[in-house]
C-alpha cells in the first residue's frame, strides 16, 4: 500500500514541476525554476521507492500516463488549451489503462514490499 502512496507523491511532484516549466520561462525566473527542480527531485525520489514494490514497466506506464492526463486537464482548465473529442477519448484510454494496471491480474507481477 505504501508503494501506491509513494506513487501519488511522485505523480503530484511531477505534475507540479511540469506545470511550473512554462512559468520558469526557460529557467530565467528563479521561483518557478526552483519549483521545477524541487518537484522533479521529489518525483524521481518517490518513483525510485515505488520501483521497490511495483515492476518498472507498470510503474512507468502508470506514472507517465496519469501525468499526461492530469497535466492536460490542468492546461485545458487553467490555460485554455484546446482539447477536441479525440483528446478526451485518448485521455479516457489512458485512464482505462491505469485501471487495468491496478487489476488483480497484475498482482502476480508485483514483488513483495520491503517496507
From TrEMBL:
Q: Name one GO cellular component term.
A: plasma membrane
Q: Which InterPro entries match?
A: EmrE-like (IPR037185), Small_drug/metabolite_transptr (IPR000390), Small_multidrug_res (IPR045324)
Q: How does it sit in the membrane?
A: Multi-pass membrane protein
- Transmembrane stretches, by residue range? 33-51, 58-79, 85-101
Function summary = Guanidinium ion exporter. Couples guanidinium export to the proton motive force, exchanging one guanidinium ion for two protons.
Q: Would you identify the family this protein belongs to, as annotated?
A: Belongs to the drug/metabolite transporter (DMT) superfamily. Small multidrug resistance (SMR) (TC 2.A.7.1) family. Gdx/SugE subfamily.
Q: What is this protein called?
A: Guanidinium exporter
Amino acid at each position: 500500500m505504501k508503494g501506491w502512496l509513494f506513487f501519488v507523491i511522485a505523480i503530484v511532484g511531477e505534475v507540479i514541476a511540469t506545470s511550473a516549466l512554462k512559468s520558469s520561462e526557460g529557467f530565467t525566473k528563479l521561483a518557478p525554476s526552483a519549483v521545477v527542480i524541487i518537484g522533479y527531485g521529489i518525483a524521481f525520489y518517490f518513483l525510485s521507492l515505488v520501483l521497490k514494490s511495483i515492476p518498472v514497466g507498470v510503474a512507468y506506464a502508470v506514472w507517465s500516463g496519469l501525468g499526461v492526463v492530469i497535466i492536460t486537464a490542468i492546461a485545458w482548465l487553467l490555460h485554455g488549451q484546446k482539447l477536441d473529442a479525440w483528446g478526451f477519448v485518448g485521455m479516457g484510454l489512458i485512464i482505462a489503462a491505469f485501471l487495468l494496471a491496478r487489476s488483480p491480474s497484475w498482482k502476480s507481477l508485483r514483488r513483495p514490499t520491503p517496507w
